[in-house]
Every structure is written in structure tokens, then in C-alpha cells.
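COMPLEX REQUEST
Ligand: magnesium ion
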Amino acid sequence: MKQIAVLGSTGSIGTQTLEVVRANKDMQVVSLAAGSNIDLLEQQIQEFHPEVVCVYQEKQAKELEKRLAGERVTVLAGMDGLIACATASQVQIVVAAVVGMIGIRPVVEAIKAGKDIAFANKETLVTAGHIIMPLIRQKGGKLLPVDSEHAAIFQCLNGESDREVAKILLTASGGPFRGKKRNELECIQVEDALKHPNWAMGRKITIDSSTMVNKGLEVIEAKWLFDVEFDQIQVVVQPQSVIHSMVEFRDGAVMAQLGTPDMKLPIQYALCYPQRRDLAGERLDFWEIGSIEFERPDLETFRGLALAYEAGKMGGSMPTVFNAANEKAVALFLDRRIRYLEITDMIAECMQKHHNIADPSLEDILAVEQDVYRQIEAKYH
Ligand code: NDP
Ligand code: MG
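STATUS: Structure written out below.
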């Protein structure tokens, strides 16, 4: 039996993880965690019978506890609850699928407790990769990428030596505004940005995909997961999202992983690695696809991608500033309090004002996050 914790079980990755668990009789849910959606969490508890759950928001946690009186499940709240779900003794693998850098502490504690991690929560790796990667090596656990591009690269590297990698070719759909220029993006509304051409995902990552900040976060994520330099990571726009990413080796050979856009594949692969198993769903039909196109990303229109490379190369606390400013700005945009282009303007402004801290501790990272939030709030209240 594979014993699993799902952090962010009510989200897009979380619910698809539970679909995978439902289809695999040798997987068992030990713990579930969500932010506030207790209606869905309650249904999940009835179906998967976890021993412990966490609702981050106290009030909703209390309400859920009331609803579940008499049941054999412990309901916890807050960061302590999240950490308890990630580190419960029976858990073997933690699916890190909360959104945002709130995932840092539970992931770090899970690794310290010897758990493997199926990693979707890229913001955590972007901001704390320099802490997480050495820790996972020290503890001997596995970090299995769930993000489709990184799962693709991971598959391309099967049986290869990391030293032979020349380049990571990170594919990008280009999002709903591919081909547009900056002045055409001035009036973009929340509804426009929430329409992703190929993938159905949570709201924050969908906005991030439209600004290409998501690809920027993925560049930094790839640097940590595959131990390459930023100059070795090339973003290639591939609008159909058929190729999930590629690796070029030192002899010029390029390996790619292709598939339909279905996150259950990388989720199941991470949970079963190194095994492959049956997975129901559509298959690629190359006669139907006909052709696959490639483009260079437009770094002037999608300046978030250029800023990510800049933040990544500077290192230290700068990726945290990049990420925290984006998290806050996207939340403000979703609340219709700022305009679309202000998202990346805000990231640039926060990065410019920041005095970079080399090799920041976990406490430094969390302090920088709060500083950036305060800075943006002060401007927009
Ligand atoms: P969603 O917004 O759909 O889900 C987020 C999940 O996190 C929900 O279960 C939410 O609970 C929970 N959550 C939010 N805040 C907290 C908190 N403070 N404590 C505990 N749980 C919390 O996001 P996605 O599933 O789309 O994305 C999750 C992560 O995976 C992100 O980092 C994203 O970048 C990454 N990812 C997602 C992909 C996708 O296809 N969706 C693809 C690749 C990466 P509640 O419902 O109660 O708010
Ligand atoms: Mg991705």
C-alpha cells in the first residue's frame, strides 16, 4: 500500500490526485489538507477515510469538526495542522499541491521526516530551492516532479547521466495572449485571462500562464530540479501543448516527452515511479495533429519571463521577491483592484527596490515575503 498525504486536496491537482488514488487499489490516503473549502473536503473524507485532515482557516476547521463529530478523523487547523498532515508517521509520499509559498514549511518538514515528495507546488521550490535540494539529498528522499514540463524532463532523463545534459528545452503554450503586443493587453479583464487554451487549472496558475510568469517560475524550478545553469534553460513556445518538454544532450540528441494535456499522467507517474501503469484517457493521434509549431517567446510583451530569468540569475532572496510580488499582484488582479499589466509592473518595481540577501534562511524568505506583501498593500489600499 502506498500511503499518501495530499496537501491542497480540494484544488485542481488535489482532486486529480484523488482520481488517481481512486483508480489504484494499492494507494491509500492518510491525510488531506485544504484552505477553506470544507464542503468538498467533507466529501473527500467520506470517500477516502483519512486519519487526519487540516483546514488552514480556523473558523472553517471548527465548522468541519462539528459536522464530523463522532467520526474517526482528527481535524486540525493552521500551519501546525498542515505540517502534521505532511509528517504523519504512516505517510510515505506527500503530494505538495497547495498554491503559493505557503507550502514551504510543510514541504521542508516532510523532507526532514523522510517523506518522498510529489511536487506540484512550484512557488515553494522557486523561493526555497537552495534549502530544499540539499535537504532532500541529505535525507535520501525522492523529489518527483508533477509539473508537466518537469515531469517530461524527468522522463527524458531516465537512464541518462545529468552530466551529459546540454540544454533543457522548456515548452510553453504561450497562453491565451500569444501573438499579442503589450498595448493590446492593457484592457484585459479577469475573464479573458482565465481562459487557457489547453489546460484546465486553478485560478492563480491560469493567470500566471497568461502572463508567462508561470513559465518564469518553471525556469527557476527546472534550475533546482535538474541542477543546470539558467543559460542552459531555453523556453520554446509550442502552442498545441503536445510536447511537454525536451532535453538536448551533449552529442546533440534531443529527447522529448509527448502526450495529451492530462495532469493525471505526471501525478500517477510520480506516485508510482519508477513504474508505469495503465491510465484511462485520450491518446495522441498524430494523423489528427498533423503538425507541431515552434516559436521564440516574446520577452518584451511577456516581461514576467524576462524578470524570472533576472531574479533567478541574481539568486538569493530575489526569486522570493519575484514570486511574492506575483502572488500578491495576481490576487489583486483577481479581485479587480489592479489592471492586468500592473501584475508584471509590480514584480519589476519590487525587485528593483529589494536589497538582495545572499543564501537566505527560511526565516529570511518568509520575512521577505511579508515585506513584499506589505509594500504592495501600502500602495493599493
Ligand atoms: P488550486 O487553486 O486549484 O488549488 C489550490 C489548493 O490549495 C486547494 O486545495 C486550496 O484549498 C489549497 N490551499 C490554498 N491555500 C491553502 C492554505 N493556506 N493551506 C492549505 N491549503 C491551501 O491550484 P492548482 O491545483 O491549480 O495548483 C496547485 C499547485 O500546483 C500550484 O503551485 C500550481 O502552480 C501547481 N501546478 C498546477 C497545475 C495544474 O494543472 N493545476 C500544473 C502544474 C503545477 P481551498 O480549495 O480550500 O482553497
Ligand atoms: Mg507546467
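REMARKS: Residues 284 and 323 are 34 Å apart (CA to CA). The longest strand covers residues 27-34.
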